[in-house]
From TrEMBL:
One Pfam family per UniProt: PAP2_3
Protein name as catalogued: PAP2 family protein
GO cellular component: membrane
Transmembrane regions: 29-47, 53-73, 94-113, 148-170, 182-200, 294-314
Segments forming domain Inositolphosphotransferase Aur1/Ipt1: 124-309
The species this protein was found in: Sphingomonas glacialis
Keywords for the protein's UniProt record, in alphabetical order: Membrane, Transmembrane, Transmembrane helix
Amino acid sequence: MSIPTTSTYAIATPLPVGSVRQPGLIPGGWLALGFGLSVLCVAALLYDDGITIDPWAPSTLLFGFAFAFLAAVRFVTRDPSTNSQRIARDLAESVGLFMGVGLLGAVATYPLAADTRGSVDAVLQHIDEALHFNWLAWYELVVAHRSLQILGTAAYQSIFVTPALILGHYAFADKRAEARGFLVGFWIAAVISLAIFRYIPALGPLATLWHGPVPYLPESGLYEADLLPALRSHMLREVDLGTLRGLVSAPSFHTASAVLYMAAGWRIARLRWTVMVLNGAMLLSTPIEGTHYLADMIAGAAVAIVALILMRTLRRTMAARGRERV
């Protein structure tokens, strides 16, 4: 029989894995419901415009396998008894949701683009002129330096590196509330960006400002200029997940993502400067590699700020009500 003691050297009973209260934890049921509704909304958009996804295409099967694997890991480790199981649970949940939101957002741009008309490139160009931003000068500088092309491409593609670092840290540090908040902020930014895109489509500065042969094709290419007309005329009827391209020009989702990543990374001492440098480089590469106007980027930053405010308000509300659920 154990004897009660107040000794300084008494060994405390270890807390069960995952038993630490995390203020502001967004309930998992809310995330599941939100994701289910997102799937239904995107499916409805595709159906309404007669756009399909081949369920037997290799890319579709690959995504299906990945989501099934992550869902299985999340289910098996739902009541973890070891730290390894808890980490696996949190990683499966975070990676699955991040992949899902990103995939749904990219797919949604296709039916939304099919319903757009015209473009707002002239307005965005006027805004850039008022801000004294010369996109063509930036492009010509990159064209003249192969090193800038290589560095810019690498920086632009790092959009998936930072969330891997952040979500990995949250999983290993048992910061589930922060992970879910980060995912919800990303989710909100995606929804806002899609809603804005529906009403202000743009082809991008490379398609509208550069005339003649293209000496350097950035990472984003001319996808908006090529795909928007095909979708509007209903010539493109099937989406291949393996060649999926996000078609949102304004607001810049790379910029929105960078702001969200930097806001999260700043609170993580070990990752702070890594995240700042990576995303600072990504922002510098975005005008050319993303073929974005400066106006696009300002709009993207504004979207991220709104998403952060909404996410933090939600977390504060959850903390105040004491509704920390697993």
